[in-house]
Each structure stands twice: as C-alpha cells, then as structure tokens.
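User: I'm preparing a small set of examples for a lab meeting where we compare how different chains pack in three dimensions. I only have the primary sequence for this one, and I'd like the structure in token form so I can line it up with the others. Please keep the answer compact; I'll paste it straight into my notes.
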Amino acid sequence: MRYTIDDINRPLEFGFEPALKRSNKLTVVDKANVLDCSRLWRTATREMKDRYPDVKVEFMYIDNAAMQIIQKPSDFDVIVTSNLFGDILSDAASVLPGSMGLMPSASIGSKIHMFEPIGGTAPDIAGQGILAR
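Assistant: Understood. Below is the structure token output for the 133-residue chain.
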C-alpha cells in the first residue's frame, strides 16, 4: 500500500466534516503498529485535527476495530480508513443487519465517487426478473 498525504487528506476531510456536524467523534482505523502507510495516516490525521478542534479523534487498529464494531457498534459514528480496512470492517459489520447485501460501500475520489451495495450486482441473474436470495 502506497499513499501520499494528499491521498489521505481527501478521505480525512470527508470524515471530519460530518463528524463535526454529528457527534464530534472520528475513528481512524489503521495498523500503525505494523504498516508505515498507517503511520502516515496518523500523521496526516494529527495535522488535520488542528482545523477541527471540536472533533475527538480516536485511533484504532483494524483487528480491534473489527471486533469492536460487532460488539459495540454504537461506540462508532464516523470511521475513516483505507479501502482495504474499510472492506474488512464492512464485511465484519454485515452481521449486524444480517446480510452483506444491506451494507453500503463508498469509494471517494477527487472528482468521482462510487457508492454500491457490498453484495455486488449478481450478474448471473441479471435480466431474469428475479431477486437474489
């Protein structure tokens, strides 16, 4: 995984803004005890936090976050993380509503954003007039 500060600042801003309007809590999920790129996420977060002094930032390792999001989902409000860790968290959290198909996913770009259900498009049944089960 390779990131620049600019690559990280975009999703951070996208997370800080709603956190400011909601509970003033932002959780940044990473693996900074192992990955250099995760340490860069923490550096970028600490630098950006000065612009959002009312937002409480919590850093959490991905393995702990996966467990905590299932045990205590209400402890989370806004989560910012890399695409890989976001995939892990959305898969883990899918047990809460009971189906991966109910869990949304978002990839935020500089100009184009893509939102999709995590369960995919079910191309094997496309055009048949039936629902995926």
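A couple of notes for your slides: The mean pLDDT is 86. The two ends are 35 Å apart (CA to CA).

User: Perfect, thanks.
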